[in-house]
Structure formats: structure tokens, C-alpha cells
Design a protein that fits this description.
By secondary structure, this protein is an alpha+beta fold. The chain has a single domain, classed as Porin.
Length: 232
């Protein structure tokens, strides 16, 4: 039996044999981190319009998130969704020159993601400290818009600079379970407010746009995110 088949069999066994009385849990979180969409990847090294305009500046990607959690014998299975917000701006170029004008150009992204994830507890058993690695993967759908200084949508040739891009995303991270560090405070929160756990997490995100739509823009990229999440 191959290793992937063995892993899937183990996961299915844990799901089916897990505590049937434990319902799905709810987890709410929020993350943020520096980000720059990899728009120039589309040009395969022949041009770098995004880097030229924004001079490799980095905006911030903010992302609230909700997840449904199914406890397993060795960790958790999660199904999550998020809505992000990213904005960056720079002084625009005067037409056909590399001189900056007084007006600004702004790029805005609203990425929607849905991910399935697996979080495991083996590091806590080995280290005696509640650090939990996790992996998440799923599709993304990102609305994008490039605007002018007056707030209107920029026009390139005869095309309006807005649209949506379908892609795929993944995250690899570590979560620190705060409730396992101070069990007494965790018990008070659980009994008084129904909070079953709280984590701080640090993850590396990676995304790529799929060439599905005619007006797709490469809005994927990689970045580090940090955040807080609370389980109910």
C-alpha cells in the first residue's frame, strides 16, 4: 500500500471512529500580513509593469475567517472560508514616460477563499508545548480593480481595468493553543462565555491564478500572515 493511500485510510478511520457525540465546532479568526500580488509573473520576465509602477512597495492583506472544526483522534479537520481586503497605491506615470504625475493609481483586491485543512497535535506530544502544525488548501475567487486618482476605473486601451480571477491557494502554518498554556483561565472563559479555545497563528500563504477567464489578472503570490482565532 502506497504512503498516500495509507494516509487517506488513516484519516478516514479517525473521522469514522472519532467521538460521535462531539458536534462540529465554530472558529472565528482574523489575520493580516504584507502582500504584493505577482502581476508581473504573466510577462515571464519580459516586463515588470507592476514593480515599475509600485516600485516593489508592499501593501497589507487583511483577512477575517470562519471555520467549522471536526475533532479527530490526532488533530482536527477544518472547512473554512474567508474574505480578504488588499489595497496599494502609487503616483501614476505621465503617459508614455517614466515620470510621475500628481495623480495616483490604486489597486484593490477582494479575495474569497474556501479551504479544507488538517491540523495535527504530534508536536505537542513531543515537545510538551501546545504548538500545532496545519495545512490548508482550496480554491479562490478574487475581485480586482485598478483605479485612477479620481476614483474611477482605469482604462487600458479600450478595456476597463477591473474583473475577477479564479485561482488556488494553500497555507502552511503553526498555531499556538493559548487555552492549553493556562487551563484555569481557559475553564473560566469556557464556563462564562462559551469560548472553548484561543490560538495565535503564523502561516505562509501561497496562491496562483488559473487562466480560466479572459479578463483574469495574476493576483496570486506568497506572503506571511499572523493572526488570532477563537473557538466556540
Amino acid at each position: 500500500m502506497s504512503l498516500p493511500v495509507l494516509f487517506v485510510a488513516l484519516l478516514a478511520s479517525q473521522v469514522s471512529n472519532g467521538p460521535a457525540s462531539e458536534p462540529l465546532g465554530l472558529r472565528l479568526g482574523f489575520s493580516f500580513g504584507p502582500f504584493a500580488p505577482d502581476v508581473d509573473r504573466e510577462f515571464k520576465g519580459t516586463a515588470t509593469p507592476y514593480a515599475d509602477l509600485f516600485e516593489d512597495s508592499t501593501g497589507w492583506l487583511l483577512r477575517p475567517k470562519v471555520a467549522w472544526v471536526r475533532p479527530l483522534g490526532f488533530g482536527e479537520l477544518t472547512l473554512s472560508g474567508s474574505v480578504g481586503w488588499f489595497k496599494d497605491s502609487a503616483y501614476a506615470f505621465v503617459q508614455d514616460t517614466m515620470q510621475r504625475s500628481g495623480g495616483t493609481t490604486t489597486i484593490r483586491l477582494i479575495p474569497l477563499t474556501a479551504q479544507v485543512g488538517l491540523r495535527v497535535y504530534f508536536l505537542e506530544s513531543w515537545l510538551g508545548f501546545p504548538i500545532h502544525p496545519y495545512l490548508e488548501v482550496g480554491p479562490s475567487y478574487t475581485f480586482w480593480r485598478i483605479g485612477k486618482g479620481d476614483g474611477s476605473v482605469a482604462v487600458v486601451g479600450e478595456a476597463r481595468a477591473n474583473g475577477a480571477s479564479l485561482g488556488i491557494t494553500g497555507a502552511l502554518g503553526l498555531a499556538l493553543a493559548l487555552d492549553r498554556i493556562d487551563p484555569q483561565s481557559a475553564r473560566i472563559l469556557r464556563e462564562s462565555y462559551g469560548v472553548h479555545g484561543a490560538d495565535i497563528f503564523f502561516e505562509w500563504d501561497y496562491g496562483r491564478t488559473l487562466p480560466v477567464f479572459e479578463n483574469s489578472l495574476e493576483v496570486g503570490g506568497s506572503n506571511w500572515q499572523a493572526g488570532l482565532q477563537i473557538s466556540f
